[in-house]
Design goal:
By secondary structure, the chain is α+β, with helices and mostly antiparallel strands. The protein has two domains: 2-76, Glutaredoxin (3-Layer(aba) Sandwich), CATH 3.40.30; 86-199, Glutathione S-transferase Yfyf (Class Pi), Chain A, domain 2 (Up-down Bundle). It is built from ten helices and four strands, in the order βαβαββαααααααα. The protein has helices spanning 10-22, 41-44, 65-76, 86-119, 126-146, 160-166, 172-175, 183-193, 196-199, 209-212, and strands at residues 2-5, 27-30, 54-57, 60-63. A four-stranded mixed sheet has the order 2-1-3-4, with helices on one face. Helix 1 (10-22) packs antiparallel against helix 6 (160-166) and helix 4 packs parallel to helix 6 (160-166). The protein is globular and about 45 Å long. The termini are far apart. The relative contact order is 0.15.
Length: 216
């Protein structure tokens, strides 16, 4: 399997960490996000959406990060991170869809305003953050309630749903996500961050030092 990705992006880190949780081996094909390499003709032939990541496995070109993780799990027959119980799988799929349709956007505004813009010497738009805050808090409460009395989202161990839902928060300190009123969510994120697959995909070493310094 060839994974076309840039380790600094949300969905690329998601897949890399998911592959780590699955024990999936892959060939790393680096695509420079900030240089716009995901918009060139070579990459568009793989993913016409011009978005990272993308997977090539033989004659299969696959995009959408959650689909890539599920495909790898099925290919490997990995039933720890992607249990075979249909109820657990349905729950994982539910969280994957929720993450991509709701949670990603709620966290992304904080990423753009508090991480990307400072790195590009642009001023964060507090009005945009304020406008997005009610949605973020409503969704964060859903997660916090779900994690009340639970270690992980879908099973007794970490699964692909935990990786997917954690990914939009992966730079939460720099994003300045307002997590102080969500103790269950915060404790869960600490558990995710302790996973070897998460530690191994830390994007900080891949961010140029001069850009990282702007966030510190």
């Amino acid at each position: 399997m060839k994974l076309y990705f840039d380790p600094i992006t949300v969905n690329c880190r998601k897949v890399a960490a998911g592959f780590g949780l699955l024990g999936a081996e892959f060939e790393n094909i680096y695509v420079d996000y900030f240089a716009g390499a995901h918009k060139n003709d070579e990459f568009l032939a793989i993913n016409p959406n011009g978005e990272l990541p993308a997977l090539v496995d033989g004659d299969l070109n696959l995009w959408e990060s959650n689909a890539i993780m599920v495909y790898a799990a099925d290919k490997l027959g990995q039933t720890d991170a992607y249990p075979s119980d249909p109820k657990i799988r349905a729950d994982i799929h539910r969280w994957h869809l929720w993450e991509s349709s709701k949670w990603f956007g709620a966290c992304y505004v904080y990423l753009v305003e508090n991480v990307v813009k400072p790195m590009l010497d642009q001023t964060p738009d507090q009005a945009a953050i304020d406008a997005g805050a009610p949605t973020f808090h409503a969704l964060a409460k859903i997660l916090d309630d779900r994690l009340n009395g639970r270690q992980w989202l879908s099973a007794d161990q970490a699964t692909l749903s935990d990786i997917a839902v954690a990914a939009p928060m992966h730079l939460h300190t720099f994003q300045k996500l307002p997590l102080e009123n969500y103790p269950n969510l915060s404790a869960w994120m600490t558990r995710v961050e302790a996973l070897p697959c998460w530690e191994a995909t830390n994007p900080a070493p891949h961010i140029p030092p001069e850009l990282l310094a702007k966030l510190l």
